[in-house]
Amino acid sequence: MPKHTIRQTLYVIGCRFSDAGANVAGHPMAQIALVVFCFAWFLLPLGQDATAVLTLVLSVLAITLTQMVLNQQKRHEVALHLKIDELIHAMKGARDEVMGVESKSEAELEALRITGDIAEEELAQRRGKSVVTTEANGASRREP
Predict the structure, then answer these.
(1) What is the pLDDT of residue 120?
(2) pLDDT tens-digit readout, 91-112
(3) How confident is the model at residue 1 (pLDDT cuts 50, 70, 90)?
(4) Which of 50, 70, 95, 107 is close enough to 46 for a disulfide, judged by CB 3.0 to 4.6 Å?
(5) What Å distances lie between residue 78 and 8, 25, 31, 71, 87, CA to CA?
(6) Residue 57 neighbours by CB distance under 10 Å
(7) Can you tell me the distance from the alpha carbon of 85 to that of 144, in angstroms, rounded to the nearest whole number?
């Protein structure tokens, strides 16, 4: 097994911490507990200082949890794209240039869409069927 650098080790630890925090915070009981805690905090006569502390803690917690969830979603999205790319690569007749499309520019995406429409029209003509195409302006048209 290859030896990890300190940066890689910290990244792995951060990912595990982020996953655990996002999973705990996303559990319905955690959300109910937070609402009950906040409600009880405001009902107790603790004064303005306690309310300011609660506001500060909740603000920091919200920012931290948002980053944890975004980190978790980013890794899940990357994994999903890898799976989809593998399926595209494995399918007979699929266009390999579609793999990795999530990192392409708008112009490249439009060019891929147009080439896909052209290929679909050609296939439909060979089969003698009509095809619905989407033009660059978003309008649809049916061709015989």
Answers:
(1) 74
(2) 777 676 777 777 777 787 778 7
(3) low
(4) 50
(5) 18, 22, 28, 11, 14
(6) 11
(7) 33
Structure tokens at 59: 């603000």
Is the pLDDT reported for residue 121 higher than 80?
A: no
28-43 vs 6-26: helix axis angle to the nearest 10?
70
Residues 6+ apart with CB under 8 A from 130: 124, 142, 143, 144
Please state, in angstroms and as integers, the Cα–Cα distance from residue 113 to each residue in 12, 41, 93, 133, 140, following that order: 38, 55, 16, 10, 14
pLDDT tens sequence across 5-59 = 888 888 888 888 888 887 887 788 988 988 898 788 778 877 788 778 888 988 9
Q: Torsion-angle region of residue 99: left (phi > 0), alpha (psi -120 to 50) or beta?
A: beta
